[in-house]
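In the design runs reported in the main text, the only information available to the sequence generator was the tokenized backbone. The following block is the verbatim input for one such run; it is reproduced so that readers can re-run the procedure and compare outputs position by position.
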């Protein structure tokens, strides 16, 4: 959610912080701030975007080689200048940036107020700054020890970076639940909530684990647990290029990511289909495949778009592997009392690998003895580190807040898993297995063809940009795509949209349909084609404008629908990978035409690390 950046070394810190915050702005963007230490401490923060912060700072150039920066997505306290981070303790000794939620902050705040501490903001983060200062002054301990002792009183989640004015050559970072990455340079260290601000300086990184504290000077990094047990840091190499986190000539990250899909899907299956093209290999499942093949039940968990991908997974595993599947919102699953045992396989889907509810559900499932697998995009993130196995989607960094290429990569992984397990369970014979592998390899080229017709979708967007409501209908594999199409439109253009299974329309939503309600119908040539044609007739009878996504050469629906968008034919199991693309494009163009901030839609954040 919030973005964190920090630096200690020999370079001017201001540009590092500002550039880092710009890279992280997709995580949260209601306010931003920086703090730099030189002979004194300088804090600048304001409501708005990083560009507003730059304006706020201009005219006051700050020099220094140690500093922290933050871009906020409000949880406690409205977005304003005071609630923006960094926060400074009452006595001014500690300055911190914080990502996460301190659940017992009310109680801690009450105690600290009674002890004479004052509070400027409504945030839980300022409480932490004061708590650390209290422990520091009262216990007469080092800054590091004060941080560790204070954090052991905190309930909730945090990724924090702290500076102490008494020890101005040090950054102290700690994590519980909220990610932190440390970039390791020569006599310099970089900190961030994900690797995007770091990659232009170094590819050597340390992922902080929960309950770990890093004490960092220019020349040394000491890693220990909250309880002061020393740890040996593990340095890993980032598999990320700076070009991957630029817009690459596109107007928005979202558009770039839509257009990247032929390549990102190829990257998802690259190296996983043998060079002869006859076998699937999913290395991350190697150890666990017997349990997956024997599973009595698969439970797929996720949130938002990842949950939609999970719904496609339900059709895939049931069709191809004949395993019973349930798909759950992680946020519901974790607070129910789910019945799980060792014959169950739980698959957690998450682009970021950090979504708080999905991570909590992973932990619950592991405690219950289920085999827990992850389908994640961000390498080294929390979910892949806590699961028993899994498959990275390798879609590359997704910066646009609205998920696009992550969805198609997740569906690609689910399809590969279902095909593999289906073959191992002898549900698919060699011929069918080979057929699906061959079909999968064709998908990137078919998406290219859809993208070549983006201009037609742009024209449709022009016609519908001012409507207030949209309905999306699909059946079978395309029902989850209807949900995903509606979500994309809602989140970036703020138009109300609903996705529905087409047949279910008669049980309520049909009452809404009239001339002013455009209906997007996903109508490919699969076994329910005739049924969806009937559904289109029903919608037409209510005078709605129908936009149908059809297979190339379809003449029947062309006569019924007001507008059609063609996609190439593919086996039904891969149809979500194709049908979603025009819907992504239509949402994108409508949002741009309505003047919306496509990459940073209001109230949303890329990585939802609070519950
Ligand atoms: C929608 C979107 C969100 C995410 C959801 C889960 O476009 O991006 O609905 O899909 O917040 O995030 P991850 O996949 O990171 O767990």
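Verbatim output:
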């Amino acid at each position: 959610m919030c973005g964190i950046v920090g630096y200690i070394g020999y370079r001017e810190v201001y540009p590092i912080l500002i550039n880092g915050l710009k890279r992280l702005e997709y995580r949260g963007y209601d306010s931003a701030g920086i703090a730099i230490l030189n002979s004194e401490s300088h804090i600048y923060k304001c409501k708005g975007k990083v560009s507003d912060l730059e304006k706020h700072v201009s005219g006051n150039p700050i020099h220094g080689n140690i500093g922290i920066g933050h871009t906020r997505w409000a949880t406690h306290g409205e977005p304003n200048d005071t609630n923006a981070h960094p926060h400074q303790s009452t006595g001014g000794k500690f300055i911190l940036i914080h990502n996460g939620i301190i659940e017992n902050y009310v109680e801690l705040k009450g105690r600290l107020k009674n002890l004479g501490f004052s509070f400027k903001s409504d945030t839980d983060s300022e409480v932490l700054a004061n708590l650390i200062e209290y422990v520091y002054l009262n216990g007469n301990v080092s800054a590091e020890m004060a941080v560790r002792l204070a954090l052991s009183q905190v309930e909730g989640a945090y990724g924090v970076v702290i500076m102490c004015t008494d020890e101005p050559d040090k950054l102290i970072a700690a994590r519980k639940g909220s990610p932190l990455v440390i970039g390791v340079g020569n006599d310099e260290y970089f900190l961030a909530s994900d690797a995007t601000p770091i990659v232009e300086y170094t590819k050597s990184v340390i992922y902080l684990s929960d309950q770990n504290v890093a004490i960092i000077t220019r020349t040394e990094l000491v890693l220990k647990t909250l309880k002061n047990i020393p740890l040996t840091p593990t340095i890993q190499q980032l598999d990320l290029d700076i070009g991957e986190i630029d817009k690459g000539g596109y107007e928005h990250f979202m558009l770039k990511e839509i257009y990247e899909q032929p390549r990102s899907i190829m990257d998802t299956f690259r190296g996983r289909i043998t060079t002869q093209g006859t076998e699937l290999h999913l290395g991350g499942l190697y150890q666990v495949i017997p349990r997956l093949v024997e599973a009595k039940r698969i439970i797929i968990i996720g949130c938002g778009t990842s949950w939609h991908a999970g719904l496609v997974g339900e059709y895939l595993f049931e069709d191809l592997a004949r395993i019973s599947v349930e798909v759950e919102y992680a946020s519901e699953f974790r607070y129910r009392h789910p019945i799980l045992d060792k014959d169950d396989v739980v698959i957690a889907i998450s682009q970021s690998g950090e979504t708080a509810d999905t991570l909590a559900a992973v932990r619950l499932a592991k405690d219950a003895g289920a085999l827990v697998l992850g389908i994640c995009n961000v390498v080294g993130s929390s979910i892949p580190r806590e699961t028993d196995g899994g498959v990275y989607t390798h879609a590359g960094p997704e910066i646009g807040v609205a998920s696009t290429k992550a969805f198609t990569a997740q569906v690609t992984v689910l399809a590969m898993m279902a095909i593999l397990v289906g073959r191992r369970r002898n549900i698919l014979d060699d011929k069918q297995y080979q057929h699906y592998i061959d079909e999968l390899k064709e998908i990137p080229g078919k998406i290219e063809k859809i993208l070549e017709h983006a201009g037609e979708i742009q024209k449709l967007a022009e016609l519908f940009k001012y409507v207030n409501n949209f309905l999306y209908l699909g059946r079978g594999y395309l029902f989850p795509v209807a949900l995903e199409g509606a979500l994309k439109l809602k989140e970036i253009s703020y138009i109300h949209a609903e996705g529905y299974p087409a047949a279910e329309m008669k049980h309520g939503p049909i009452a809404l349909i009239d001339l002013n309600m455009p209906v997007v119908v996903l109508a490919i040539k699969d076994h329910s084609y005739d049924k969806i044609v009937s559904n289109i007739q029903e919608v037409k009878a209510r005078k709605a404008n129908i936009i149908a996504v059809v297979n190339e050469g379809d003449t029947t629906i062309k006569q019924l629908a007001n507008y059609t968008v063609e996609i190439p034919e593919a086996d039904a199991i891969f149809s979500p990978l194709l049908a979603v693309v025009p819907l992504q494009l239509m949402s994108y163009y409508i949002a741009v035409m309505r003047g919306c901030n496509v990459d940073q839609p209001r109230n949303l954040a890329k990585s939802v690390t609070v519950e």
